[in-house]
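Practice problem: predict the structure.
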Amino acid sequence: MAHPNEELTRRAYDAFSRGDADTLRQLFADDAVFHEPGRNPVSGDHQGIDQILAFFGLLAQRSGGTFRVPLHDVVANDEHAVGLHVAEGEREGRRLHSLQTVVLHVRDGRITEAWAHHYDQHATDEFWA
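Answer:
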């Protein structure tokens, strides 16, 4: 049987992949923060569920709807979960294929904070620039 935070993380990835904002709104705490590293137009600290959903929408818009995060695996315990995925997309003749992780802090069954980590931050910055 999977840990509840693993199941939460898999549901969040699935909802993101389907563009299901209603489910994401249920899975993230209202005051959650998503930390996106880098020096590009999508990086920064996205505070609150509305800003997080706007950030996710920006990823779709800037990639012409091609941005995907196929999930490889999830590791979870009582306070955290780590999603291992490949970020893929196309934008203005550029392609992104980057190994990434998202570390999630979970409290009371909801994601309260997320930190994205990119294997090649430079390539990620160039893609979103």
